[in-house]
């Protein structure tokens, strides 16, 4: 009884130090809840958290619903390693693809909205000083009435042996449908370091969609508000030092709540075992 009472507190204390590790677990849960795993990615074991920041909007939480106007400008991508043993040196490939609404058949290919080779991670951000934009960022433009499309941003390790296929070896190739998994495999990309996604919907949905297309944050346990407030400071380190606009603060809080929801879940299961 006594242990069952203390366990959640102990786990919560550990979680303060491991906030990013929890965010890694949270994004894995998001990808499964949103059907991105296994439909687009057969497995997903990231070693870092990716946070998009759109100019004028702020930091974006996983799965956040945004308008076409909000996602028009190129976002910056903050990358926070899960822990101090994760080093992000060398080159990386950044991709954004349209995985369509939940239930889409991604085996037929996905629309490529962004593909950058030779990016690096500097100051916990994706840097493109020596990068090559095979496809320049092209903001989401889902067909009206086709439902909430999931735009997935993926950062891959790009080993020295990387060798892209002929058709993706030159810059400034326009948006088109391709098989991102085949590309990653054929060009010799390494592990997925981090990934996140947003949803963008145009007009009223007329298509019949899977019930799981609801906002996925709601599928994670409801957090305690005390937890998210008292630890909002520790989260700011993961936002890549972005200027804290009102919007970005709100979004950070929500991301944190997701983490704290997982803490509550883990603490609950742990307490139940005692
Ligand atoms: C650090 O994070 C990586 C990637 O999530 C994980 O595999 C590893 O076990 C972690 N190491 C420690 C010491 O927590
Ligand atoms: C680098 O980022 C800037 C700002 O987002 C963008 O305008 C430019 O096209 C990018 N260059 C490459 C090679 O991706
Ligand atoms: C990174 O890519 C650049 C070219 O974009 C290349 O010159 C360099 O050797 C690569 N570094 C590694 C570690 O692969």
Automatic annotation (TrEMBL):
Pfam families in alphabetical order: PBP
Bias type Low complexity, positions: 220-245
Signal peptide, first to last residue: 1-17
Region (Disordered): 220-253
Keyword list, A-Z: Signal
InterPro entries: PEBP, PEBP-like_sf, PEBP_euk
Database matches in Gene3D superfamilies: PEBP-like
Alphabetized PANTHER family for the sequence: PEBP-LIKE PROTEIN (PTHR11362:SF140), PHOSPHATIDYLETHANOLAMINE-BINDING PROTEIN (PTHR11362)
Protein name (record): PEBP-like protein
């Amino acid at each position: 009884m006594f242990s069952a009472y203390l366990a959640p507190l102990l786990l919560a204390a550990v979680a303060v130090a491991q906030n990013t590790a929890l965010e890694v677990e949270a994004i894995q849960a998001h990808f499964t809840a949103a059907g991105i795993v296994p439909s687009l990615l057969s497995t997903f074991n990231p070693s870092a958290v990716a946070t998009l920041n759109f100019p004028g909007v702020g930091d974006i939480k996983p799965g956040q619903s945004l308008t076409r106007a909000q996602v028009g400008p190129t976002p910056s991508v903050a990358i926070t390693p899960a822990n101090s043993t994760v080093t992000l040196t060398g080159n990386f490939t950044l991709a954004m693809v349209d995985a369509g609404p939940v239930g889409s058949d991604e085996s037929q290919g996905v629309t490529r909205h962004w593909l950058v080779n030779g990016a690096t991670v500097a100051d916990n951000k994706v840097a493109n000083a020596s990068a090559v934009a095979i496809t320049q960022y092209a903001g989401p433009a889902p067909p009206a009435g086709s439902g909430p499309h999931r735009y997935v941003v993926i950062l891959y390790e790009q080993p020295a042996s990387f060798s892209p296929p002929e058709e993706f070896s030159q810059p400034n190739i326009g948006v088109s449908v391709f098989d991102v998994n085949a590309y990653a495999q054929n060009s010799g990309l390494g592990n997925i370091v981090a990934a996140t996604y947003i949803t963008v919907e145009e007009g009223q949905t007329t298509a019949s969609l899977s019930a799981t297309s609801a906002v996925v944050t709601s599928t994670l346990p409801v957090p305690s508000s005390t937890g998210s407030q008292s630890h909002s400071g520790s989260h700011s380190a993961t936002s890549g030092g972005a200027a804290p606009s009102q919007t970005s603060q709100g979004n950070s809080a929500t991301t944190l709540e997701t983490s704290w929801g997982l803490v509550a879940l883990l603490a609950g299961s742990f307490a139940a075992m005692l």
